[in-house]
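User: For a benchmark we're assembling, each entry needs the component sequences followed by a predicted structure for the full assembly. Here are entry 17's components. Please fill in the structure.
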Amino acid sequence: MRVYLIRRLLQSLLVLLGVSFVVFLILHLTGDPAAVLLPPEASAEDIRRFRQTMGFDDPFLVQYGRFLRGALQGDFGNSIRHGEPAFALVLERMPATFELAGAALLIALCLAIPAGIVSAVRRNTPVDYFATVVALFGQSMPTFWLGIMLILIFSVNLNLLPSSGRGSLEHLIMPALTLGLFTTARITRLTRSGMLDVLNQDYIRTARAKGVGNPPVVWKHALKNAAIPIVTIVGIELGTLLGGSVITETIFAWPGVGRLSVQAIYNRDYPVVQAAVFLLASTFVLVNLVVDVVYTYLDPRIRLR
Amino acid sequence: MNRAAETAVLPLPAASPLVREWLGFARRLSRRRTALFGAVVFAVVGLVAAAAPLLAPLDPIEQDLENRLKPPGWRDGAGRLHLLGTDHLGRDLFSRVLHGARPALMVGAAAVLISGVLGLVAGLLSGYYGGRVDDVLMRLGDVQLAFPFILLAIAVIGVLGPSLPVIIVVIGVSSWVIYARVVRGAVLSLREQEFVQAARALGVQDGRVLIRHILPNVFTPWLVVATLDMARVIVIESALSFLGLGVQPPTPTWGGMLADGRVYISTAWWLATFPGLAILLAVLGINLLGDGLRDTLDPRLKI
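Assistant: Structure for entry 17:
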């Protein structure tokens, strides 16, 4: 168990190292970071001086080493547009993104798990067909379109909900629904297939043969075992939600990391982009590490490895 | 020999076992109504993409600034019907939606091909050789999956500039992991099978074992992943064009049309509605086809 956890921790560190390298590479894609960072009208003299102060003439690995040391201390340089440290700017926007992703995940779990269970227990009934079709549409619908359609219906036509900004619960409803739809669809399908697998197992038949009633069989015996893949996917989905917030935040003008980074890309403000990508990716790695630890408690078989 | 006997007898000796197997498979697939629906939708979208210039009633980029934002079903002075209305520059929305299938499918097919081949090679090597190779490739996959994909894609496209090849390569290179994982899993179990063991015992070289004996057997799970991945890529392509980082105007893209539609949301609902429906239909069709392929070919595959 301890060996497993230590190995898992080392793996996560390795992944983070890889992440930092790719984030570092973003600026070097065109071969000349100075050309990416400076406005096109910069003179040759400006470029030369800039290259020198930023150390872009040093060997590649030296530059990466410097970037990594900075990144570990939360130093990604100053935002070109705002002049403040890029890391602080991103950190400031993190709560808004977490709020949105958390709300989306909450909606997804509250809708998807009951829907998946009912769908599996009442297999091949109209309830099942309805849930399956809704999940299928949810998986095929582009989130940004759903967001625009919600705005069209609830803001433009019914005038019920605000179409942009953050603050009240009303502001949260549409962005969270938009962001959470795909995850809801995925977890619904996963819960349904997981429950169907479990409900056919021998121990379920044994439980029923012993005279255990239907509700305890479903909620206690079956759900506990079907929960394992769901926990795994929640970790992965949180990553999808953090990444997907880029588009949802843009549509609803939600002041989170996603919107900040899209604006930073348009403004060629790369220190902010690097800080944002690094922070979101690190969060994802961390969440998955936590999920794996939780997992070892849920499924004792893993502890034996 | 009469005609009926001819058609009944002749195809059989010509058909190899492989062809017959696939024909049988196609028959089983077509018995699933949802899969059949998906296949038909996919075929229609493909046809529209291929023949958009012939099918579209009007020029998708010709502007008519006097007739901006006309509602669906409107007829202009020359009596031409604008089935889905016109956009903010007076362009015919129906023609634009038809043309929008082209970049979507082009990016979809090309990106799936790149990531599919990369993932196939990685999965074959990882599963067959195991050990160090497996460790390195799978950790690389973890790094890849740790990234918020859309954010990384727009950062890279933001630096390199949006063009069709850049978009295809960025999506293609960053989507290989799912293929690699599925192929690796299949290879792990194939490696222990008798026909592979026998080939190796006979001294067949690794490369030949991989290509002749293992590759044909990982094709079906690969195909299922590729189909479902294509649906995902089409959504990503439209998301990128929605953010202005996809194929650039004046080429009509579904995502680009949605971005325009968003601006005019309070005056012209059709502008954002129909391109979105087009994406939904295409993606739904491909998803249904992919689900059907999985259920027919490889029901145990968990994707």
